[in-house]
Amino acid sequence: MDIETLIIDGVPIAHLGGAGAPIAGAAQALDLIMDVKYAAGADRVAIDKRAMPEEFFVLSSGMAGEILQKFVTYGIRAAFYGDFTRYTSKPLRDFIRESNRGRQVFFLPTKEEALARLAEL
Predict the structure, then answer these.
(1) How far apart (Å, rounded) are the C-alpha atoms in residues 64 and 62?
(2) Among residues 13, 45, 88, 116, which one has the fewest Cβ atoms lying within 10 Å of its Cβ?
(3) What counts of helices (H) and strands (E) characterise the chain?
(4) Distance CA 16, CA 107 (A)
(5) 3-state class (DSSP) for residue 14
(6) Which of 41, 38, 48 is nearest to 10 (CA)?
(7) pTM over the 0.90 mark
(8) In this structure, are residues 33 and 23 in contact, taking their beta carbons and an 8 Å threshold?
(9) 3-class DSSP state for residue 98?
């Protein structure tokens, strides 16, 4: 995983772009979390949605719940960014809407919006 550390308004935020292999499951998510915490020195990460497998966006697969639970358990705020409009699943759209109301996990259209939201927490 190629993680870059950005400083936004004095806040360190890790960034994972969409290049490379997607995060395939909870073990890779945990590797990302450790890199965010210890290599980047951050507790926030912006993730390009292309870094996630399509299975992540099928809630019935359980992958999103398993991965996002790792972020919550380890105290990492995560903002996924990209075009989510092509997903028509009502449960997923509801999940995205409810997540965006919280303070732990967000789904936003652009990298800039993701970084700004993470910086303001």
Answers:
(1) 6
(2) 88
(3) 4, 5
(4) 14
(5) strand
(6) 41
(7) yes
(8) no
(9) helix
Neighbours of 109 (CB within 10 A): 13
How far is the C-alpha of 105 from the C-alpha of 44, rounded, in Å?
Answer: 10
Could you tell me how far CA 21 lies from the centroid of its own chain? Answer: 15
pLDDT, position 1: 65
Rounded Cα–Cα distance for residues 49 and 61 (Å): 17
In the predicted model, residues of the chain with pLDDT beneath 50 are none
Q: Report the sign of the C-alpha dihedral through residues 16, 97, 85, 28, in that order.
A: positive
Name which of 11, 40, 29 is nearest 105 in CA terms: 29
Separation CA 18–CA 104 (nearest Å):
21
Which of 34, 94, 104 is CA-nearest to residue 69? 104
Query: Given the structure tokens 């719940």, which residue do they identify?
Result: 65
